[in-house]
Amino acid sequence: MRELTYTEAAREGLAEEMANDPTIFVVGEGIGERGGNFNTTLGLYELYGPERLRDTPISERGFVGMCAGAAMTGSRPIVDFMFMDFILDAIGEMINQIAKMQYMSSGRLKMPLVLRGCIGVGGAAATHHSSNLYSVFAHVPGFRVVVPSTPYDAKGLLKTAIQSDDPVLFLEHKSLLNTKGPVPEETYTIPFGQANISRVGTDVTVVAIALMVNKTLSICEQLTQEGISVEVIDPRTVAPLDIDTILESVHKTGRLLIVDETFAPCGIGAEVAAQVIDLAFDDLDAPIRRLNGAHTPVPYSPPLETAIVPQPEAIAQAIRDLMAE
Amino acid sequence: MTDLINELSKEQLINLYRQMLEIRRAEEQLARSYQAGLIMGACHTYIGEEAIASGVCAHLRPNDAVFSTHRGHGHALAKGVSVRQVMAELFGRVTGCSQGRGGSMHLFSPEVGMMGTSGIVGPCILQATGAGYSFKLLKTDQVGVAFFGDGASNNGAFHEGLNLASIWDLPVLFVCENNLYATEVPLSVAGGNPNIAERAVAYGMPGIAVDGNDVLAVYEAAGEAIARARSGGGPTLIEGKTYRTRPHAEGMRDGSYRTQEEIDTWKARDPLKLYRERLLAEEVANVDEFEAIEVQVKGIVEEAFEFSKNSPWPDPETVLDHIFSTPR
Prior knowledge:
The structure holds 2 protein chains of 2 kinds. Chain A is built from 13 helices and 14 strands. Chain A is α/β, with parallel strands linked by helices. Chain A has 2 domains: about 5-180, Thiamin diphosphate (ThDP)-binding fold, Pyr/PP domains (Rossmann fold), CATH 3.40.50; about 195-325, Rossmann fold. In chain A, helix 8 (about 150-165) links the parallel strand 6 and strand 7. By secondary structure, chain B is of the alpha/beta class. Chain B has one domain (about 5-245, about 255-310): Rossmann fold (3-Layer(aba) Sandwich). Chain B is about 45% helix and about 10% strand. Chain B has helices spanning about 5, 10-35, 50-55, 75-80, 85-90, 125-135, 155-165, 185-190, 215-230, 260-265, 270-280, 285-310; strands spanning about 65, 145-150, 170-180, 180, 185, 205-210, 235-240. Chain B has a 5-stranded parallel beta sheet, sandwiched between helices. Chain B has a two-stranded antiparallel ribbon with strand order 4-5. In chain B, strand 6 (about 205-210), helix 9 and strand 7 form a beta-alpha-beta unit. In chain B, helix 3 (about 50-55) packs parallel to helix 9 (about 215-230) and helix 6 (about 125-135) runs parallel beside helix 7 (about 155-165). Classes of the chains: A alpha/beta, B alpha/beta. At the A-B interface, helix 3, helix 5 and helix 6 of A face helix 6 and helix 7 of B.
């Protein structure tokens, strides 16, 4: 099968959807002729022009709120916001308006709006270009929150996001953008709320989010040689969360570690742990463990930056420790 | 100003009055209902500002999109939501325009282009801009309209929304109802320039200040702006200078921030009274005709009241419906 980068795969999904539906338009800073800071829209301006590939001023609240109104009136906007940190100027529009509009209108209005852009720690991007915050949005009723880890998932889930009548946050870890993986030529979509079993194992379940999937996979072979068979679950969407796939895995392994680059308090790991305890306490042979990034703003200097997020060796050690419980 | 009294048909002139009166009588009933405990949450009345919604919405079609603010009953009624649907919504009943999920500050009736009122000041400006974006992209001649107060004009949404609408020539009308107070904070201490229409210059769009208590002045300015928007001429900011004569919200005290003298001065310029006197003086309609309109509107409001208080409550079993369009 051919290989594409994560960005190429997502862009192919976007291009397919834009070709199918003339009501789709994209807004963002530099997403027009320039093709996006991360090449998310490269080549599309030539096909669709400025009305559908709309360069914006630095008015995050403005264009997010505007896209809410557009989604209520017959078009299907995509906000390409570059970094999660930037979109926080629009958080009132997102939480007060976009997430609640369908409910407030008793379902007579739809909100087919995609907010896509980068998350994640890496590249010495410092604290205003490194936020994750998916747990914040998973906390709010009304959002779909997508965190793909592979090129295949990025394409299939972006297509589902664009086709959805619900507001979707499509969050791309910036350290994944240039990773390569197989993507079939034929078109496909991936439903929300369907986890991927990234690696089958029998001794311990690791639920990992976004880049942490890759980091966990990188140490599984080594652990196999140590006699530990690791099953890796990538939820792919943190809202909705596919708890059933996690429960099935825990039923088999009896042990659960959640690896999440971002904060532990009130995070997605806490949610997964609580649900597993609620629903499958008797399946557990050991306490549920979490491995999270530090609860701190993100520092710039590489040794500091590296120190705050789970690294492969720390993941491996957490798995060994859990096996020893 | 052109002589609209002679240009408009008697029916058009009377309809403007009837619309204002319907808002007034509905609001009075809502205020009484609040006092009677039939409205459980907020109730911000539009009394004193009726000329603006009536004068603007007279130009709108059902598929034009109106986005409004917390003081939005008048906008919903003028856009074509029935008195029953608005009243039943404030009474929390399933027959309300938002089926009991919204109340006073979240009135939705997309069927007639009432795209929502909001408990947050400012977003309506951005959403109307977005409607304009849709209509331009979809190549229709619909318009988006935002109604908001002077308070919103000091909010970032005002700056960002007007700028976006201007740079993309969007078919949007921004209607600022300057009633001099943001809740209870006077514009005189909250805005560097008290003439909000002048701010349009900063965005490269026409800014028109009108007497917001003169329905024909509002009608004329809105008509020009909406025609310009429909024909691709871009957005307009209209400032209607007006006044709310009741407290910010029902049940709130209303003494410390403004004088009785000020209230009385504005009451003397009541938009219904001014317009009725004008129509009588110009012999467009006589006292008997006004009486007939009064009886008709009173009937609509009384019927809506009976309908609303006798309407069923929403079923708690449905409380989780409509969070998403699809279950998963």
